[in-house]
Design brief:
Shape: elongated
Largest sheet: 6 strands, mixed
Radius of gyration: 24 Å
Number of helices: 2
Order of helices and strands: EEHEEEEEEH
Structural class: mainly beta
Number of domains: 1
Mean pLDDT: 85
Low-confidence stretches: none
Distance between the termini: 81 Å
Helix content: under 10%
Number of strands: 8
């Protein structure tokens, strides 16, 4: 049975609805940055709970991806582990009323909205996947400057780039 990420709100029981399973590599591929390719299924564990008209989703996504190191071009793999804590409110709501059991400190300032009798979790999961990816991934052994303030190259004040040498002869008034 395929894992569904569209939840009818009326079918969320009082203790919450657990969504657990795997999404195929094909599902992951469109959410990866250019440097990455999928390396297996995405493990999903979510608990979706209803608080008044608000929907709270919490859980975790785990995926393994392949990439080429941005420094050495060596192949590498990375594990994307994403903690999910998102609150959805009806699009027509003007305020949020949370009940006991929701830790508001873990919720982003910007709430997500839903419309109608179902909530689609897929766009939220895809967005979190994109944000979890390092734009320029590196393999563990790729050397990086020990001190980020150290320049990657040094020059002598007497060295002149030949492209700019003619500027030395310029006289300013």
């Amino acid at each position: 049975m395929a894992l569904t990420l569209t939840v009818p709100i009326d079918e969320i029981p009082e203790p919450g609805l657990t969504i657990q399973g795997e999404l195929p590599e094909e599902w992951l591929a469109p959410s990866l940055l250019a440097a990455y390719s999928p390396s297996g299924a995405v493990a999903v564990t979510l608990l979706v709970r209803k608080f008044n008209a608000n929907i709270y989703a919490e859980g975790r996504l785990d995926a393994t991806v392949r990439f080429r190191c941005s420094r050495t071009l060596e192949p590498g793999t990375a594990r994307l582990t994403i903690d999910v804590t998102e609150l959805f409110q009806p699009q027509t709501a003007s305020s949020v009323n949370l009940s006991d059991g929701v830790d508001a400190d873990h919720i982003d300032d910007e709430l997500r909205t839903y419309e109608g009798k179902t909530i689609d979790l897929e766009p939220m999961l895809r967005e979190l996947l994109v944000l979890a990816q390092e734009p320029y991934p590196t393999v563990g052994g790729a050397s990086a400057p020990a001190d980020p303030d150290t320049p990657l190259w040094r020059s002598n004040p007497d060295d002149v780039d030949p492209r700019w040498a003619a500027l030395k002869n310029l006289k300013l008034n």
